[in-house]
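Internal ticket - ligand job 364, ISJ:
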Amino acid sequence: MSDHELQALRVRIDSLDEKILELISQRARCAQEVGRIKMATLKEGEEAIFYRPEREAQVLKRIMELNKGPLDNEEMARLFREIMSTCLALEQPLKVAYLGPEGTFSQAAALKHFGQAVVSKPMAAIDEIFREVAAGAVSFGVVPVENSTEGAINHTLDSFLEHDLVICGEVELRIHHHLLVAENTKTEKISRIYSHAQSLAQCRKWLDAHYPNVERVAVSSNAEAAKRVKSEWNSAAIAGDMAAQLYGLSILADKIEDRPDNSTRFLIIGNQTVPATGDDKTSVIISMSNKPGALHELLIPFHASGIDLTRIETRPSRSGKWSYVFFIDFYGHKDDPLVRDALEKVAQESVGLKVLGSYPNAVL
Ligand SMILES: C=C(O[C@@H]1C=C(C(=O)O)C=C[C@H]1O)C(=O)O
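stdout (C-alpha cells):
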C-alpha cells in the first residue's frame, strides 16, 4: 500500500471519528433527557429508577441483530455496553457491590454486566454483599451462583434464604485460571500454591499432573492469593488476568483450568422487579413437605405448562433436620400467563414458594 493510500484512509478515519463523536454526544443528550423526564414524572415519595435492565438487554440484542460485521456480535455489543454505561452514569452513576478484593472474577463480572462507568465496591464475603444491597448502600450486588465445573455456590443460595432481595439479571463469565508468580519467586522452588478453594478445585487435574507434591492453600479469594505471592519467594497463586495485572504478577502457565469451557454464572441482586423482555428467566425457591414423591409433584405443573427448567438445586432448609428447599430456574417471566398458572399450582402443592425474580436472559 502506498503512502498516499494510507494517508487517504487516515483522513477518512478522522472524518468517521468526528461523526461517531457527534452521534455518541447526541445519544448521551437523549439519555440525559430520559433522566430528566423520569425525574419530572416521579410521584410523591417515589424514587427515580434510572437503570432499566430490560431496556439495556433489548438495546444490546437489537445491536447484535443489526450488526453486519466485520466486528463480531459480542465485540460490537461490548462497545455499546460501554456507551450505555457511560450515558447512564450521566443520569446517575450506579454503585455495585461485588466479592472483593479488587481483581476478582466477581469484579470482572460486575464490569462485564454494567460496564466500566459503575462505581464498584469490594466486599469481604457474599453475605455482606446481600446486606449492603438490603441496606441501600449500593444499588446492586453481583454474586457467583454456579460454576460449570464445580457446581453450586452454596453461600449464595443460603443467603437468598435469609434476605428478601430480587434477582435483576445474570451474567456468565468464561473463567481462565493462570499460575502466577512474582518477580522474586524462585520458580523451581515453589512449595505452596494459593487460591480460592473453588479455583483449586477447577484446576485439580492440572495441579495433580504438574505440582503433585506442592501444598495447596485455600484463601478467601483469587485476588487475595495473588496479593500474598508478592511477598513470598517460594509460592505461586492461581488467579485470572485482572488479578495478574493488578498485582503485577507474571504468568508461569496460562489457562490451567481442567475444563476448557469453565464458566461461572453470576446473579445481579437488587430491589427492583424487572419487566418482561420476551427472553427472560425466573428463579424461585420452593419448600416441600417431606413426603415421598414431593419433588415429582412439584415438577408436574412446570411440565404440564411446557416450561423449560434450566436448573434445580437442593439445599437444607435450615428449619428442621433433613428438610430441604429447591432452587429452580426456568425460561419465562413471572408475568407470562403460562408461568403464572404453573406457579399458582406449585404454590398449592408446596409449603412455601418465593419468586426470587424474573430477569433478562444474559445477552453478553
Ligand atoms: C436511557 C435510559 O436509561 C438508561 C440508559 C440506557 C441507554 O443508554 O440506552 C438504557 C436504559 C437505562 O439503563 C432509558 O431508560 O431508556
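Auto-summary: Residues 31, 34, 50-52, 55-56, 59, 84, 87-88 surround ISJ (CB under 6 Å). DSSP finds twelve helices and 15 strands in the chain.
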